């Protein structure tokens, strides 16, 4: 299926560069990226969810973090990554 997506020029350049470095077409890169973001393998199978915590804590401490906090951390990491390029 075809669709049109408008991306910022710097993101498009970074995507093309990364796809070329991986030996992929932009279509392959986007398909893999969207599949990853949606949590499905390219074959359409769902990935298994991980039960947290992976390593149990020795003392019972609670961390007060929201989904918004996690999203802000990822956004800051992405911004840092693209600033470095």
From TrEMBL:
InterPro entries: Ribbon_hlx_hlx. It comes from the Bacteria. GO terms for biological process: regulation of DNA-templated transcription. This is Ribbon-helix-helix protein CopG domain-containing protein.
